[in-house]
Design goal:
The protein is an alpha+beta fold and 263 residues long. It contains ten helices and five strands; from the N terminus they run αβββββααααααααα. The N and C termini lie far apart (109 Å).
Length: 263
Amino acid sequence: MEQKAFELIQEKLQEALSEQGFLTPVPMEVENGMAVLFTTGEVGYGLFYETKEKRFVLRSTTMKTVNEPGTFRQLSVWLFDAKENDLSDAQSIANDFLEIVEGSKRREMVQTAKKKRRKDEESNADPLFFFNRMATVFPELRDEMNEERIVYGQVRPTVFAEQHVAPKVEELAKKYPESDLLKRIGGIFSDLYAAGDADTRAVIGFGVLNNVKDEGAAKAVAAFFTEGSDLAKVYPHTRKLIGKKLKPEKVKKQKKVEARLGS
């Protein structure tokens, strides 16, 4: 009964939180019972069922990283004993939790956290920052960046994007074209293309996206670009440049003007 009640409450929360930009919940390892985490990457809600205490708990947190929650704050607690309660009681618990996460103050907190994240990105969005954000999706990139530093003394942005990031993005897009992970990647690309410097935009547009060779995969990634974003506007044009050699614009020679003295 506890499992069914947990699934019911989780489903109700997921329906409401997805409208606020939260991703599909991920299980959390806990010593006592069951738990899942809903997150936008900036803030999170944790749904817990604590077996010893026989209770459901809703908690909130500010994320340390996209995948790592900070300290949890308790928002609501409901006792639930399978010997005494049923799914109608679980529905009542879900309704209470929904009132909390759908409240105007809670929604405002989520939006404020997102804006703060974007502002922080604007002052740090270089290629290395972009790679670190991609490592929240593909953790193995961290080891690959360290190998680059050991061998070359630095992470080579263009080469690293082409040889390490692009293949992972393409493989994910081909296997899971409608996944939440690909949706997250589309958001990272859109946000950092807008906030990044010229090197970052080149790494995203030419280093990664133009090295996604499979057209189906490329379309799957592009489907998750933020609507109306700079990247969504320029991507169809940069895609046309695949395989073409770009030559620097020739400087036009100015005609020599001779001054003549009048007689």
